[in-house]
Every structure is written in structure tokens, then in C-alpha cells.
Amino acid sequence: MSRDVAFATVKLGMENRKMSGLLFYGGEPLLERKLIYDIVDYAKDIGKKTGHTFYYKMTTNGILLDEEFLKFSKKNNLAIGFSHDGCAQDDCRVSADGVGTFALLKDTIPLLLKYQPYAIGMCVIDPSTVHKASSIVKFLFDKGFRYITVGVNYCKTAPWTKNHLSILEGEYKKMAEMYIKWTKAEDKFYLSPFDMKILSHLKGDKYNTDRSRMTINQPSVAPNGKIYFASRYLDDPAFEIGDVFSGINVEKQKSISQKGDIPSEICSKCALRLRCNYAYGNPVYHKSEYIADVSPIQCTHEQLITPIADYVAEKLYKEGNALFIHKHYNEIYSFVSLIEDISSR
Amino acid sequence: METDNKDLICMSPVESYEAPQIPTFGDARNNPVLLKKLPSRWQKNAKVIASIGLMGSMIFSGYSYSFAEYSNEYNGQSGYSRYSNDISVILNGMPIEFDVAPVIINDRTMVPFRAIFEALGMTVEWDEDTGTAIGIGENLRIALPIDGLTAFVNADAVELDAPALLHNGRTLVPIRFVAENSGANVEWDEATGTVVITTDGGYVEYPEYHGYSDFDLDVRLHHGGAGSPFYLVHLTEQEALNIIRRQLESAGLNFDTTPPEYTALNVGLNLFDEEKGVAIVQIDWRAWQPNMLMMPVYPPEPTFMERLTEGFAQQTDISVGIFRTPAMQPAWLEGWSALNWHWSGHESEPRPVATANEKAEARAELEMQLIAQIQEFITYLQSVGILQ
Predict the structure, then answer these.
(1) B46 close contact with A: CB closer than 8 A
(2) Which of A56, A44, A63 is nearest to A80 (CA)?
(3) CB A322 to CB B59 under 8 A?
């Protein structure tokens, strides 16, 4: 991405609002470290002149993460999402010559958490690593990550079978027990997809409305300056909604968003659709025709995780677990938690 | 059905799913004690953390739902409660009013101790030194210390799973424990969120009689009627009958006589003063209205009156006062209300929720209207010389 495109993106992001987020992702954003420094400096400069507030996030595989960048991230409140598969790191995350990266990142994790105690540990479960899923989460937790997201490899080429899903279910149940144990020990943490699924119940009908609103507010900019509806539609012409120099086609953006709010025929019959991450806001164009598309693996995964997350929530709530209740029902929990962290340092 | 991975994983909708038994954000806002207990890790920083945490709970519980807005906007009426998640307590057919609403904590319904002890006929004391709520009845003393898991019934120590606690300036006690240990029977009506308490000699159980007569007067119960879809507060048959009986017995009637049999119209004759020739008839709407959707909107249509008149005219000359009560099971009434909320086009909006006080006020109004009608009946009976 050129500086011109990057700076135009920053300016476009300021339009009609007082606060904007800039999320750097890739590929590997740290390959363009200098550009990130320039973008943040530019945004700070504009912010001082206009009163606009920017916040920054970045996802990285950590290979190029060093103390210099971490100091920069701390100084500028640049939040970091760290992709790491824990004890399964060497199964899928290998270098170009096929060598695993676990050893390479061994010292990066403590360094990251030293500067970014709220860094997010992001793992992705693949059929080849599904049997280690709970161990991966435990690894990240034991290393000190308190924000952990568990993703699933939804690529169409990922060879998921019913057997894999059965194993995944068992691993989620182990994670459920970990969640309960950590909560009872009053460890503060966020574990997705559990907390996300619990939220889907707490928010009721608003869950998917809020998600839909969030999606429309997160357009993605390609290196050539074209803007797409969301990051997963990058380079798909059907989802191109403008460019950073001429702006966003708001009508097209809204139209895509509205189409995404209509579930497919199958999803519309599903009792879990209001809690599903994919029934709404997941528009796809197939050839020239729009369809709302949820892949079978996504669908099955949602059906698998929802009752497990609900079991956790019901157990902790009925036991009157104060931390669980405040975490999910106290609107200023995050603030109180932050005060606690600050006062204990 | 779409398939992936060579039909190994299939996509199929879930037909039904039972939501977890925990409140949503909306439901939780009706529970002011939800955030009362703080995580112990916050209590270590008591001064700063606890105060902020409590501030959070105060902000949270301060959320209020404007029932009046919905009442005026959607129905143009007021004074009647709508669908509510609040808890009611009925003692011998009569509701108990609380200045602080009952709440459920750890699956136990907690109520202000003064109100429940006094309703059960006990005097109350408060031991300041030990922080103990005490109820004293005949040969009975129940003591519940605040936050204590051991209560005392006379000299016996009894373990509690829900201790008495302070809430909104009131001491709340577990209602089942108090009521059962005072000799009452306690039941929980899940459908209506009602704690039903009955004591020996306090609850009038009316057997089902079949009686008949000419009817002289139709005394109507104004409650919103069966055709009003949104009202879930009503007097049950038993409650209405209790009120009627007490009022009429005070006026000089005697309902201890066994009434005669009558099989036409499936009419239940509940109260019968044979000497004075006065009967109170409870109409079971299901008997004469086979299809609930065809049920006439209150007040009853002439057809009903004519049918009743014909039936009674065949028989004796007993004066019959007909009090039309909302003879619906609570679960059915809820279903009816849900259906009508949908029919009226509001299904995309949450149904209004009434507070416990609003519900209590509506019930009180129903009782007052019933009593007013009973007075009319008494006046009629006096005018025809049946009563002095």
C-alpha cells in the first residue's frame, strides 16, 4: 500500500464521525512496519488539529514483532492480536521452508504481554489440530493471554469430517470446564466463542442487529485503494463499494448490508438463527446472483458450540458466581476491572 | 440441503432450541439484587472497587420501564397491569402487597419480613444487636438472622439455603421457609409467577355443585373481560368467590347449606342460602362457549343472558346473582394475551412489563369493583325484603 492510499484512507475514515479505528492486517502488516509508523504519526497529527480520535489495532503472526515495535504500540495504544496456535503452532504455522515457528516465538510471547497485557491470543483450529484445541487454549492462558479467540478454519478446502467435529465437540467441552474453573478462581478473561455465544443470548434480538451494524462500519481497504464491504470480500468486484480517493458508495454499501440481513431459506427455519454468527450479515454473490450463504461447517459449528456455551452460562449463573454475573451484566464491568488492574500494579 | 466435503457434513436447521435459563439484559434489569454480590477480588480493594461496583449496580437497577407510555399509547387505558415477570403472593386467595417487590435469589422467593409475618397473623420484632428478624405467633417464634444460614423455629435450629438479607432498606426473608414453618401450605405457580399460600381454615374450597334458579340480577365483574387480550391481572374464581362470600355473609346471608343439583348448562352453584333463597352461580365459560375464539367480548351478549334465563326459568324461584369472573387458567390467559399481542400488530415489539406495584394496584381495583357490585346486589336483596 502506498503512503498516498494510506493517508487517503485515514482522511476518509474521519468523515462524519469523531472517532475511527484503523486496523492493520494482512498478510503480515509488520512487513510494512515503516508505513504503519507513518500512518499513526499522520493520524495523530490530524487528530491534534481536528480533535478527531483514532484508535489502532493490528493482527500479526509475531515473527517480526520486536521490542522497538512493542514500545511504539504501547506509546500509541495500538492493540495487538497475536496469531498463535499454542502447542499446535508447528502443525500449521510453518515458514516457507516448512519449519515450525513455535521455537521462534518462544520469547516473543512474554515480551508481547509485558508491553501489551491485554493482547489477544488468536488461534485457529484446523482438522489437523482439532484434537489439541483445548490444549491450545490452555497454553495461551497459561502463557498469560487473557483475551483468547478460538477460530475455526472455514476454508472450503479444509477437510472437515463428522469425526473431526465430534472431536471438536469434546474439546469444546474441555474448554467449557476450563472456563468454569477459571471463573470460579476469579481469573478475569475473555474466551471466544464462549463469551460471544453467551452474549448472543443476553442481547436477545439485538445481537444480530448490532453485528450487522458493526459489519457495515468496518469496510476494508485494499493496497490499491479500493474499498470493499468487509475484509473477507477483498478483491471481489461484487463487494467493491468505492475507493479511498472518491469515497464510499453509501447506497451500494447499504444495499449489500440489507441483503445480508435476509437469512437464506434454510437459516430462516433455524431456531438458532438469531444467535448464529452467520445467518445474518453474511452476504455472498454466487456468479451474478446474490444468495446468503452459510457453509455447512459454519452451520454445524454454531449448532455445536451454542449448547456448550449455554451450559457454562447457566451453571455459573445459577451458582450465583459473582464474577460471571458482573462480567456479563454489569455495564461498567470493564471500567471497574481496569481500575482494579491499575490499582494493583 | 447443502452438503460439503462429499456429503460428510450436512447443513440442516435446528427445529427447536431451549434457551438457557439465565436472564437477558432486558430481563435482568428487573432484578435489582443481581449485582449486589461483588466478586471477592473486588472486595480486596473495597474502598475503590466496591464503591464503583455498587455504582454500576445502582446504574443498572435504576433502569425503569415506562409502563404508562405503553398503556396510553397502545390501549388508551390505564389502571390494569399487563404481562409481567414480577412475582405475586396470594394468601388464602387474597394478594399480599409489599412495599418492596419480591425477588428470587438462588431459586428462593424473598419477601419483606414484616409484610409476610403480619399477613400470617404474627407480630414482628427486630433484634438490633444480632440483626435478626423475628415473627411471633401462637406457640411459635421464627427468627432469621441477616446473612445467617441458620434460622430458629422456637428452639430448633434450621439450616437455610437462602438467608435473610437487606435490600432497598427492607429485610427480606425466604417466603417458603416462613410460611411452611408457620403451618401454611405453599405452592409455586410457574406460569404466573405466583406464590400461593393457604392456611388451615383460611382457604374456602368450594365443591362443584349443580344448582338452578330464575336469575334476578346480573352482577358484572369489571376486570377488562375475557376479550381484553393484554390483561394478565385478574381475580381468580376462588379469589372472587372469597370476596363475595365474605361480603354477603357480613350482610346476613348464610352459605353453609348444601345446594340442590342441576345439570343443565353445566352451571356450578357455589353459594346457596336455602333459607333466604339466594344463590351465587359461577359460570364456567368453557361449558357454554365451545370455541374460545367465538367468545363474546365482555359484557356478555344477550344470547348468553337469554340462555341462562331459559334454563333457570324452568326451575325454582331462587334469586340468583351472577358474577362473571375471568374463569381462565393463567396459562391460557397468557397464551391468549400473546396471541392478541401478535394480532394487534405489535409482535415486533416487546410486550409491556408492569411493576409489582402496578399489578397490585390493578388487582386492588378489580376487588373494589367487585365489592361495589356485591353492594348493588345486597341493595337489591334489601329492596325485595330478602335482607334487612
Answers:
(1) no
(2) A56
(3) no
